[in-house]
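Q: Sequence in, structure out?
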Amino acid sequence: MPQQILIVEDEPNTAEMLASYFQIQGYEVSVCGWGKEALNFVQHTLPDLIILDIRLPDVDGYEVCRQLRSHRRTAQIPILFLTEKRERIDRLAGLELGAVDYVTKPFDIQELRLRVRNILRRAQMQSVMHPITELPYATLVEDRLNQLLGEKGWVVTAVALDGLEAFADAYGFVARDDVLRALALIVRHAAEEEGGKDTFVGQLDDALFFAITGPEQAGRVQERLTHRLQEALALFYPREDWEAMRGGAKPSVPRLVVRIGTLAAGPSYPNAGKLREAIYRSLQPIG
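A: Exactly. Output:
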């Protein structure tokens, strides 16, 4: 999957130029022109890097950086300040807040490209655990999927949770993160009870978890997960909202939908990306 860059820049020509350039380089690029817009964006999508202007129309880049660093979910996103400010005190202010680099305007686009590449390489090497659930993630998961390509006798049991964005809009992102941590524990416990402590449990993305077991354990893992997740859904909501939603009296309550799937060794997957796609396709909603 391409790495994602979020560009926070209020000057349209600069934003468009940067977005086009980095898209050509093979990155997935999103653009925000306001600081608050960027803070809202990262609540539902975690970019691999943020290129952040300091002078923004609403809150300045320093405050955006400060808020990102104050939340566990966003604290580790690399931030590169891109600004007209050249004074040493401005550079130190950004670095003290946790920015990993600082580039002044006008800038050399080739130099910026290399700085971005180096930042992303360092971050990729460090990104091995999910910041909220602390499950294996990113590089570790990619390595494990690549190992599966040459192995036999495995089954992946995957669990996805749909509707988290609407849930977070209704109840806040602290509640959303609590749901993710609870889901991670449920998947890990179910897999370890059947497959033992050495069972690999990881996270493909923010809301998709998986466990790798042998064929003899996979059916029992799926059964445990289905039962426990059906029970757990009620605990994620305020009681009155859950009861109203189940009774049809409050259709506005955001509905979380659990999907479960299994994928067994068999077809020859050419690479980890195709294996990942097959895992996604295996998912079906539980009743």
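The chain is about 45% helix and 20% strand.
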